[in-house]
Amino acid sequence: MVHPASERGVRIVASPFAKKLSKDLKLELASVVGSGPMGRIVGKDVEAAAAAVLSNGVPESRKPVAQSAPAKVSGTPGIELGCVVPFTTMQGAVSRNMVESLTVPTFRVGYTISTDALDHLYKKIKSKGVTMTALLAKATALALVKHPVVNSSCRDGKSFTYNSSINIAVAVAICGGLITPILQDADKQLQPHEYSTGTFSLSNLGMFGVDCFDAILPPGTGAIMAVGASQPTVVATKDGRIGMKSQMQVNVTADHRVIEGADLASFLRTLAKNIEDPKDLTF
């Protein structure tokens, strides 16, 4: 059952992430019905309200600029081919961050990891609400504990910081942009805080069947890891025979001012051990 987030004269009750999202999407919170405890508005309520607005008509900020030639309608409803569409506030913010990231000298390292044990663990605990991305974030955080330089960051071009906390930023695509909710202190718990400052980023397109890709480094972080899909693969066994294993490809993009190739290689070896023997991922 859902409740209004506020009555007349009473302040609107909403999570920090919901407030941030409503501001980015230019959506009035007063028009959103909350589904959280005591009618509190959470992120999914704002997303649902924004989707409802889009289905009833394109908002002013997204209306195409008028063209002299007749518009061509694409196969996707609501899109006119050949028109010019200005960025939303969120798209503008993403654009500025991406341009800023181009000023950082980066390099990339790939690694193949067997996932049979992780897949087995996930099947056992997914009914409890634990996602594969959360397990990957936990495995990553435990590896970062042993390799703090990969969790470091350089913001002024003159020095870098060994961050005291491990906060995994997980890239999430929403309507009109990309946000990165944080798994704060991810080496200690799986429960996500809604918004904070990430020290390491994780982008998982494996759920969409993508087997390999590179991610752009977000400004202010030392590294981001791109996770591909787990695929059945023919491999040679230890006794020289042919066998089958599920394997996934991960590619890490890192700030080369701070992190060296050997640092990433050591980090990825530890990550592979955590995933291939996932006994420490739940407790």
TrEMBL record:
User: Domain Peripheral subunit-binding (PSBD): where?
Assistant: 13-50
Residues annotated as transmembrane: none
GO MF, one example: dihydrolipoyllysine-residue acetyltransferase activity
Q: Which GO terms describe its biological process?
A: pyruvate decarboxylation to acetyl-CoA
Q: What Pfam families is this protein classified in?
A: 2-oxoacid_dh (PF00198), E3_binding (PF02817)
Give the record's GO CC terms: chloroplast envelope; chloroplast thylakoid; pyruvate dehydrogenase complex
Please name the Gene3D superfamilies in this protein's record.
Chloramphenicol acetyltransferase-like domain (3.30.559.10), E3-binding domain (4.10.320.10)
InterPro entries found in the cross-reference section: 2-oxoacid_DH_actylTfrase, CAT-like_dom_sf, E2/Pdx1, E3-bd_dom_sf, PSBD
What family does the database annotate? Belongs to the 2-oxoacid dehydrogenase family.
What PANTHER family does the record tag this protein with? DIHYDROLIPOAMIDE ACETYL/SUCCINYL-TRANSFERASE-RELATED, DIHYDROLIPOYLLYSINE-RESIDUE ACETYLTRANSFERASE COMPONENT 5 OF PYRUVATE DEHYDROGENASE COMPLEX, CHLOROPLASTIC
Name the chain's protein.
Answer: Peripheral subunit-binding (PSBD) domain-containing protein
Origin species, per record, is Tetracentron sinense
